[in-house]
Design a protein that fits this description.
rod-shaped; about 100 residues
Length: about 100
């Protein structure tokens, strides 16, 4: 495979990862909005004295913490993949420039 073909394939792969990263970012925003809404409801329930127990509150907080940890792992994984592809693209671009001279 020529450098140009390889560069094109890596660029397409990077575009695909960028799209997946954007989709993940939208999902994260949606989940954080959901978390904010839940916390708002909990605050209102606590301030109005409705029947929310500390166990209910702890359960929600634990659930939120687990979701945030999972999302952070997903973001770190995709960021790592994106960085590796950027490095490969830069290397191929440099070698293509060197081959031309």
């Amino acid at each position: 495979m020529e450098n140009k073909e390889l560069l094109l394939a890596i660029t397409e792969l990077k575009s695909s990862l960028d799209k997946r990263f954007d989709d993940l970012e939208k999902l994260i925003d949606k989940r954080f909005d959901s978390v904010s809404e839940e916390l708002y409801k909990i605050r209102n329930s606590l301030s109005s004295g409705e029947g929310v127990t500390s166990e209910d509150f702890s359960g929600k907080i634990n659930s939120i913490e687990k979701e945030i940890k999972i999302l952070n792992l997903d973001v770190k994984y995709l960021a790592g993949k994106s960085g590796i592809l950027e490095m490969k693209i830069n290397g191929l671009e440099k070698s293509t420039l060197i081959d031309r001279h």
